[in-house]
Specification:
The complex is a heterodimer of chains A (182) and B (175).
Chain A lengths: L13 H9 L4 E7 L2 E6 L1 H13 L7 E9 L4 H6 L5 E9 L4 E9 L5 E3 L8 H12 L2 E3 L41
Parallel strand pairs in A: 2-5, 6-7
Antiparallel strand pairs in A: 1-2, 3-4, 4-5
Chain B lengths: L4 H6 L4 E2 L5 E2 L2 H10 L4 E5 L2 H10 L22 E5 L7 H10 L5 E5 H6 L20 E3 L6 H16 L5 H8 L1
Parallel strand pairs in B: 3-4, 4-5, 5-6
Antiparallel strand pairs in B: 1-2
Helix pairs in contact in B: 2-6, 3-6
Classes of the chains: A alpha/beta (182), B alpha/beta (175).
Chain lengths: 182, 175
């Protein structure tokens, strides 16, 4: 029973190998959550990394599954990790070729809410980024049509931010039907 | 003429004397006609609408009560069935549709969400459409069964037959 159990060495995923080779300075952290590789990328290099992930013939993350954001303003442990960046923009990617998923997270500070739009890389990002703008107020630079998608155009605020009250600020009671253009 | 004795007896305020003579008032006859041919305008936004569809389909068959002529144009209908959640973005649309319906018109608020917001006590959901449009009959349930919707239609019918005004014009008659 004293046999030493051999530790199985997992080969490093190809995507990490290649990112460390080409974009080492962009990577802030790498982790695995429930079988999905999660990398955190510096905002300045986020577009370059995402473009690389999509266009590299060996990686080919051609499917952008989701773009969303997380407001960590009430999660001290998360905030501390990435220089107190309030928001984390999350890109969920899938590669049909490699049949694997990748989650790319980009910390965004509250005093500079802009981040390059990836609508030019994946056309599907158009509405996903509009939703993220609507719910969190992240500004996607270079987006072709950045306006609200879920809330009414004249809505004030970004309701998925943690400081937005759950029951709203009276929007659901106050209506001026004469002004509404339906 | 196709009027059976049962029809005549079921109509309030209508009396049959001997032979083929019936006496009544014009209001009673009009109300009797209205109540038996309610044309609903469905405003289905959620799971309640599925129950509403079941109510209209063959198994529950709302046409037994004269309300099978669903109109998808508010101009041609006199019974608005609000079945489902109404968001703050949808409320102006619902209000516009209600305004487009010709008088007299009745409103059924079907299910918990339409009546009081249901479990969705959030920034985006109207906590009861009766804040903005007058509601005649509320149906509890989440979602209510088709029998509940049939019951509500019958309650609207009773209201019409009794000569009561729709909720929407009550305030006009008070003064």
């Amino acid at each position: 029973m004293n046999e030493e159990k051999e530790v199985e060495v997992q080969p490093k995923p190809l995507v990490l190998q290649k990112l460390e080779e080409h974009h080492a300075d962009a990577l802030l952290s790498q982790d695995e959550t429930r079988g999905t590789l999660v990398i955190v990328v510096r905002k300045e290099q986020a577009y370059a990394v995402l473009e690389y992930l999509k266009t590299d013939p060996e990686l080919a993350y051609t499917f952008l599954v989701d773009v969303t954001a997380v407001d960590n303003s009430q999660m001290e442990s998360e905030l501390m990790q990435f220089d107190y960046a309030r928001f984390m923009v999350v890109y969920q990617l899938y590669s049909y070729q490699g049949q694997c998923r990748l989650r790319v997270k980009v910390p965004v500070h509250e005093n500079d809410l802009s981040i390059p739009s990836v609508a030019g890389l994946w056309r599907g990002a158009n509405w996903l980024e509009r939703e993220t703008y609507d719910m969190f107020g992240i500004n996607f630079d270079g987006h072709p049509d950045l306006r609200r998608i879920l809330m009414p155009d004249d809505f004030d605020g970004h309701p998925l931010r943690k400081d937005y009250p759950l029951r709203g600020r009276g929007e659901r009671e106050s209506f001026n039907f004469d002004k509404q253009n339906v | 003429m196709g009027l059976t004795n049962t029809d005549i007896q079921s109509a309030q305020g209508v009396e049959q004397t001997d032979g083929n003579i019936i006496t009544t008032t014009i209001d009673k006859v009009i109300n009797w006609g209205r109540k038996n041919s309610l044309w609903p305008m469905p405003f289905g936004t959620a799971c309640c609408a599925i129950e509403m569809m079941a109510t209209l389909a063959s198994k529950f068959d709302l046409s037994r009560f004269g309300s099978e002529a669903i109109r998808f144009s508010p101009r041609q209908s006199d019974l608005l069935i609000v079945s489902g959640r109404i968001s703050i973005k949808m409320m102006p649309v619902l209000k516009r549709i209600y305004d487009q319906m010709p008088d007299p018109k009745w409103v059924i608020s079907m299910g918990a969400c339409a009546s009081c917001g249901g479990v969705f006590d959030t920034y985006t959901l109207i906590q009861g459409v009766d804040q903005f449009i007058p509601v005649d009959v509320y149906i509890p349930g989440c979602p209510p069964r088709p029998e509940d919707l049939i019951d509500a239609v019958l309650q609207v019918q009773e209201k019409i037959a009794s000569g009561a005004s729709p909720k929407g014009v009550e305030h006009l008659l008070e003064t």
